[in-house]
User: What shape does this take?
Amino acid sequence: MKTLITIALGLSIGTSVFAANVDRVVRRANNVVTLLERRADDLSQREVDLIAQKLEEITQIISGRTPNPTPRPPTYGQVIHQAECWIDDDPDFDFGQRSAGVVKGTIMQIVSECEFRGHSTYPNGSAGLKDLAAIDDTTGYDKYECHVDDDLDFDFGQDVIGNIYGNSSRDATEACAAIARMMYGDKGSSGIRY
Assistant: This one.
């Protein structure tokens, strides 16, 4: 009997400590959401929403509730694309010198792989992408056409890389800029068309 009383007393103390911790975690999660809203200009709305959703899920779990799953479509970073990778033997990239095959993955994986193929073949070389297209189902996503220019005076139509599928023009602009940096370094520029 004494053991049962000790266990019950321990559980009641533990429960009150747990409840206090839950309240503290909830307050801190709300503080984080407030801070994120104040700095929203530094993040895309999608990023703010995703962080707020994750904080809400944590709060629900700690409170003993089951999180309400809210499926979100993946961003451009998660949609699988493919593109033809071209490599050049010098840092001044030009299409048509040598194809290094088709690369598949997220935009950043494609950029990384093509750049690796270029530098592993020609240590002082460069690389570029052509015929970029999504190979996943693109239902529900926006389509953006990525254009790259070899100088800072951007003109549409110089190098049409292909289509990026995603949820926001900001993400597509960042992905297209990453492709331009891979191809032309700091002297290149990029833009998207809707």
Summary: The chain has two domains: 2-62, 81-193. Helices lie at 2-38, 45-62, 107-121, 169-184.
